Amino acid sequence: MVKVKICGNQTSDDLKVTAKADAVGFIVATPESPRNIEPKTASRLVKETPPFTSTVMVTTVVEPKVLCELVVKVEPDYLQLHSTLTLSRTKEIARSMPNATGIIALITVKENLDDLKNRALKLANSPVDALLLDSKSEGRTGGTGHVHDWNISRTIRDTVHPAPVILAGGLDPENVGKAICKVRPYAVDVATGVEKDEDKSDQKVERFMEEVNDSEVKSVP
């Protein structure tokens, strides 16, 4: 069953709408994101998240010490490293985290395919719990709301399988079913695709979840 992560939660009202997902994301220490919130706000929202819904702290911070301090303050289940880091830095960060904190590493899908496959394989064999495939556009790494080439994503998914791959980048209720059938990811990640007037939309979240569930019936190996 394909999992769903809804990212960019900023308020308790957002959380009431998105907590039906398998995981919810909170963006911190990333001022370039319009969904950035203070660590203390993220910490409060983590505590408000219902049991059995995983919490993910998303950040572009790259310094292990600062990341560790943020994780201790926010107490997420997972840390999503939303910067393109070297393998050695990723391992260093993973070693510095509290034992219970999972790591999600980013792969931006706008590079040479051979390089992407090589990076994905190395990350899949490192202390990382999942790989997140996202779009790169206009100088931003992820969080663009733009779709990338799903053929590349499928190749990466097949290269690292059975390592968990999370598909992000411009997903919405209209295209998520096609994306799942094409890529067959472990999970999908959405933010702008379930928003209305910059708030999470209950109607769009409901439809997104329905499309994910329906796509599993249509998906084939």
Which descriptors apply to this entry?
single chain, 221 residues, alpha/beta, TIM Barrel, 8-stranded parallel β-barrel, two-stranded antiparallel ribbon, 13 strands
Question: Could you explain the architecture of this structure?
Answer:
With 221 residues, the protein is α/β, with parallel strands linked by helices. The chain has a single domain (3-218), classed as Alpha-Beta Barrel (TIM Barrel). It has 8 helices and 13 strands. It has helices spanning 12-18, 39-48, 64-74, 87-96, 113-124, 150-160, 176-183, 202-218; strands at 3-6, 23-28, 36-37, 54-59, 78-81, 102-108, 130-134, 136-137, 140-141, 165-167, 187-190, 195-196, 199-200. An 8-stranded parallel barrel has the order 1-2-4-5-6-7-10-11, surrounded by 4 helices. Strands 8-9 form a two-stranded antiparallel sheet. The chain has a two-stranded antiparallel sheet with strand order 12-13. It is globular. The model has no long low-confidence stretch (mean pLDDT 94).
Compile the SSE list and pairings:
Layout: E1 3-6, H1 12-18, E2 23-28, E3 36-37, H2 39-48, E4 54-59, H3 64-74, E5 78-81, H4 87-96, E6 102-108, H5 113-124, E7 130-134, E8 136-137, E9 140-141, H6 150-160, E10 165-167, H7 176-183, E11 187-190, E12 195-196, E13 199-200, H8 202-218
Helix pairs in contact: 3-4, 5-6, 7-8
Summarize the structure.
The protein is an alpha/beta fold and 221 residues long.
